[in-house]
Amino acid sequence: MPYPADRDRDRPWVMRTYAGHSSAAASNELYRRNLAKGQTGLSVAFDLPTQTGYDPDDELARGEVGKVGVPVSHLGDMRQLFDGIPLGDANTSMTINATAMWLLALYVSVAEEQGADRATLAGTTQNDIIKEYLSRGTYVFPPGPSLRLITDVVAWTVANAPKWNPINICSYHLQEAGATPVQELAYALSTAIAVLDSVFDSGQVPQERRGEVVARISFFVNAGVRFVEEMCKMRAFVQLWDEITRDRYGITDPKHRRFRYGVQVNSLGLTEAQPENNVQRIVLEMLAVTLSRDARARAIQLPAWNEALGLPRPWDQQWALRMQQVLAYETDLLEYQDLFAGSHVVEAKVAELVAGARAEIDRVQAMGGAVAAVESGYMKSALVSSLAERRRRVESGEDVVVGVNRFATTEPSPLQAEGANAIEQVDPAVERHAVEAIREWRAGRDDALVRSTLDRLRAAAGTDENLVEATIACAKAGVTTGEWASALRETFGEYRAPTGVSAASASGESDAGIGRVRERVRAVGEELGERLRILVGKPGLDGHSNGAEQVAVRARDVGFEVVYQGIRLTPAQIVAAAVQEDVHVVGLSVLSGSHLEVVPAVVDGLRAAGAGDVPVVVGGIVPPDDAAKLRERGIARVFTPKDYELTQIMDEIVTVVREARGL
């Protein structure tokens, strides 16, 4: 029976668009336009320097400023970002992790300047560092201090900003990194256990307020195109979270135990080939998290059809928002009780997922919990292996991807007609302006006040004092993002997470050609009198390492000696490693849009080091015009997401080595 429309119709979820680029002023204009189109919550994308604690004029920020999000370097930027948007009335999600405390401090400071009370602020800081070690790579500090920062934010918000979600535990990125539904459930819930254990063990929250802590823990999940399985996964999340919070933590109020989650559907599954097919993928994936009322998302943001090509335009983001609005306001979805209650098929699938997740959670807990499973490399290796298996199924045709490995015949797309600009392009001048602006900001500050607040922060970091108030003091004094992070780096140190490549299981014979390529690698090595060596490098701040890891695993499988040092390397460091290891080819992976800056810097560095004969190949999200420019700069090959068959890529890299050595 449908619910009476005037009584029990389910309320629509918060509708967001993940947005931000170029500058605070440009992003503010975009946010205000999106709100005028009916968006009901803001979702802020920060650029990589902001996410990893660097100012725009830092060497590692070169080519990254304003590319995948908005640069926010200080209080002035945050003021501009939310100019004309009353933060006391807003619901703002900020995708920020390692520097979450800092961005929250800036947000609180601007809200107070606007006259808003801290207790009225509503929104979310993502603040899940565990998945950064496993997937996105925007971590800064080691796991222990990182968990301390999360703990302090959780405890502070419960006491001071009770409407704020201090952490958004992300299974989303685990799926992007290869997680099966069972791994996604288990590793996300293991992260939640680690956070709650840390908060409760810290002594910062009285026993009687533990339910309030649990009630503010939110999740950010992924929904793939297997939407029946994905819907069952969400019902499994609801069941497991209720069990964990009741049995492990003794939370008695069912409202406190409710599984609260937001969604962005699967960007990894979007294709460069026939990208118009991404529209129906996005809609089907949205159904996975909306069909079941008992496990329905409370906030949704959808990617745009062209995210596999580059940065979406405002029109593309509008299209994604309209998908949500049609489902919520035109269909009868919200008028019914749960559609799957009593379904034997759904109950059996949920039970299977719950049992598998319980077993994997127990395995992680037996290792000492999520942090220990990160430090040992266990979870990372498991994800790299799962992603290798997924790629094997796609390459073999066992898993069909329409327009890629089947039904690839296509008509020309009017969405990508000649002369059309199918993606948003960030003006290269953005970075120069940001560098000039931050130097001007530093020149206009009270230096003594900046020094004293940073000294206070360093001193507090060496104790068990909650660091949020010291961080807010830094924000109000005019400290920059890089300065705040640098002060904590001095105390906490830095960290390089396990890559998971060496321990990952081999991908197997994914196609008939792998043996032939292995023989080519061996033969060319014999001609040269040494085993072929490839350096796989991640220049700049782009931490999306899944592709680089899969290239490294497949290169090892076909017989290359692989040099892979992980993420966040300067071009100079990559050049030094290439020369020291005497490699035959360098492969660079860049997905952040910084390819025109960081890739030529590696090529120029090799020439300056006397290794100009070492060929360089590039893989990533590279528009055709940019690919042509890279080839003009001496890049031997450019591979993009449409080049999904790794064994063929390996074969082409062998050809590149032969050409470079005159064989």
Automatic annotation (TrEMBL):
InterPro entries: Acid_CoA_mut_C, Cbl-dep_enz_cat, Cobalamin-bd, Cobalamin-bd_sf, MeMalonylCoA_mutase_a/b_cat, MMCoA_mutase_a_cat. Pfam families: B12-binding, MM_CoA_mutase. Its cofactor is adenosylcob(III)alamin. Keywords: Cobalamin, Cobalt, Isomerase, Metal-binding. One of its GO terms (molecular function) is methylmalonyl-CoA mutase activity. Residues 531-660 form the B12-binding domain. It comes from the Bacteria. PROSITE patterns: B12_BINDING. Heterodimer of an alpha and a beta chain. Belongs to the methylmalonyl-CoA mutase family. This is Protein meaA. It comes from Saccharothrix syringae (Nocardiopsis syringae).
